[in-house]
Each structure stands twice: as C-alpha cells, then as structure tokens.
Specification:
This protein is mainly alpha-helical and 125 residues long. The longest helix has 122 residues. It is rod-shaped. The chain contains one helix and no strands.
C-alpha cells in the first residue's frame, strides 16, 4: 500500500464519519423542531379559549357601555325637562305675583275712590 492509498482510506473514513455525524445532528435538530412545534401548537390551543373569553368580555363591556350611554341620555333629558319645568314654574309664579300686586293696587285705588266718594257724600249732608 502506498501513501496515497492510506490517505485515501483516511479521507473516506473521515467522509463517512462526517456523514454519520451530520445525519445524527440533523436528527437531533429535527426532534427539537418537532418538540418546539408541539409546544407552539399547545400554546395556540390554550390561548384560543382565552382570546375567545376576552372577546366575549369586550362584547359584554361594549354592551354595558352602550346601555349606560342610553341611561345617561335618559337621565340628561329628565334633568333638562325638570329644569324647564322649574324655570316655567318660577316665571309663572313671578308673573302671578306681579299680577297679584297689580290687582292689589287697582283694588286699593278702587277702595280709595270709594272712600272719597263716601267721604264727599258724608260731608255734603
């Protein structure tokens, strides 16, 4: 055997060992990737119900907020109506008081005129 034959045998053995190492290393990487895939699938399967529950909660919150907005609108309109009634009551009451004062003054004038007429009639006799 010559030196070239020996080096060729060593080269072939190195190539075979490199191929075996590469196959084993690729198998380990594939197993790790499959384990990672299973973990990701499990994570997705666990988060889907949580996301669904979150969506349900958001929908309920939206519904509650819209109901509260409706109640707020009703309360606001009730307050405005109450303010209008109070302001109307105040203005009508003030007008009634002014009318009462005007009526009192005209009645007082009538009484004064009546007293003058009575006094003038009484003094003539």
């Amino acid at each position: 055997m010559t030196l070239i034959d020996i080096l060729l045998i060593v080269l072939i053995l190195a190539a075979i060992s490199l191929c075996v190492f590469l196959i084993i290393y690729l198998k380990i990487i594939t197993e790790n990737l499959q384990a990672l895939r299973k973990d990701v699938d499990m994570l997705i399967n666990k988060t889907i119900p949580a996301v669904d529950n979150l969506n349900d909660t958001v929908d309920k919150a939206k519904r509650i907020v819209s109901d509260i907005e409706g109640y707020w609108t009703e309360i606001d309109s009730s307050i405005k109506k109450f303010k209008e009634k109070v302001s109307l009551f105040k203005t009508t009451k003030i007008l009634k008081e002014e009318e009462k004062a005007a009526n009192f003054i005209s009645n007082l004038r009538a009484v004064v005129k009546g007293l003058r007429a009575f006094w003038s009639t009484l003094t003539r006799k």
